[in-house]
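Figure S4 source data
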Amino acid sequence: MTAITEHHVVYAGDKKINYLAAGPVNGPLILFIHGWPGTAITWKAQIDAFAALGFRAIAPDMPGYGKSTARRVVEDYSQEALVEGMMALLAGTGHHVGIWVGHDWGAGVTSSVARQHPEAVKALINLCVPYHTIELGWDGFLPLVNREIYPADEYEFGQWDYMRNWEENFEKTIQWCDQDPAGLCKAFLQRTSQPSNRFAPLGLVRKNGWLGGIPKPPAVDATGPPILPADVFDSFAADMQRTGFWPGTAYYLNHERNAEYNGKAPSGGRLKQPVLFVHALWDTVCDTKTSRLVEPMREFCSNLTEVTVEAGHWVQFEKPGYVNAALFRFIVDELPSEWPGFWDSGYTKKKLVL
């Protein structure tokens, strides 16, 4: 198994991004950007797989998480500030361009990087959250809610009600989360089954509270095994215990700043690079199957590939083999020159007509 090493970059004075790396330093660069909540180690299945093939695989603790700077400053978690950190991370790897893979808020960040610095993006791969949505603030995704499931007069914010709850009740909700960060993370990371309907319980958070309004998160021993390997989960849980939920959740408090920043993207935000989007079939929050959430991506990406995996929101944890295979095929099909060894392997092909 390829060794995973730990590194960091310092930028903007005294901010730090901690990251994990594996694979040959000069191999094609692929960066894995986690969402809420998460840390670098949660990408271990992808780091191992890609490094073993000869990629240089990088996964940061995003600002607000793990060993990266986690100040209680809301502006630190705007897309503009996060992109600044990602550009520092890229420079720290010794590369100037890479394949960017993002999940959840990580997909918002990779989308922002692609919008603002297309020269740094060889290809964009987003899981669950499409390009041209969350990085644009409320207007990027709220109008795309399926109003047959969430009538506007009853569910103004649709399945995104929990996001509005962060804006209205941030400190109170953080206090609830921080009663047991490890227990809450384990409750989130349970295996998903096919939903009986497409209504997301997170559409009722302001009415009922988190997890139906229980007084505190479930204890670690109150839920089943997590979908992450035990050692990976334990490391992730320790990371969340260290920072608490405040810094990483402040990503949700910057919608207006994000809209202003990404509204000024070069080329109007249209992408020419290859883009892969992974649908999680059973994801009822980032619902890309019955809502219009994917429509802007299809309009703004000229070279788009889509694949669907039967899993919930944590698709790369539930079905790592399927997700990795989708990424491998996409790179081989769309970016063969980025496949390790392409340029020096002497690989040739001949067809003999009989």
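Figure S5 source data
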Amino acid sequence: MNDFLIIIPAFNEEENMLTVINTLKSLNSPFDIVIIDDGSTDQTATKAKECGAEIISHPTNLGYSAAIQTGFKYAKKKRYPYVIFFDGDGQHDSTNISDMMEAIQMENVDVVIGSRFLQKRNMKIGFSKMIAINFFQLIIYLTTNKRITDPTSGFKAYKANVYEKFTKSSEFFYDLPDSNFIIDILLRELIILEIPVNMFDRQNGKSKIHATGLKPVIYMAQTLLSILIVVIKKKGFIKVGGDLN
């Protein structure tokens, strides 16, 4: 077993799965890979098995948050010192994995976020999504006095002292863990480091989180509500959920 675990949450990513896994394996780097198949109805799991990947399958689609927590719990069970989340849609650049690995091993760093905005990139970002990103940049700054350039990035690395905290449902209660999760981590006085990464436009399939129409508005409203809960919870006014080990 290696010290690093690459966790890939996936839902109906059969068109991207082979490329994502094979690209990671071609790096010949010291990490293990696990696919969290979130109840896919296509051939996602089959494609992953063809590559010899470790797979954990949810019996039904439980959502991105549940896939993340399953990854955390698997990593804790196996006692990985570090985990890196890597999207199954082909948008993350595998050549940045080594940068993430190096950064998360630094002293006084608890979480690393791969940011597409620290250097000029060619990835196209929709108008509504850019508004959401700018809005949550502001919310994070107002609530934590910290600046995060890419609050919606799914390319993240965690040390065990962080991810193990979130294997309990009382500590990880999100439907969509984005800016709300970042604020939670910062309010715990943990250190987040952003590093520049490259991201690609999605080639196949559709985003399951950031879509068009009213979905971005609903996403922003849900995230704002979750941020409010995080802040209130931090102040000790409420307790959320119960521990599930």
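Helices lie at 14-25, 44-50, 64-78, 97-104, 127-144, 160-163, 179-187, 215-234. Residues 237-245 have pLDDT under 50 and may be disordered.
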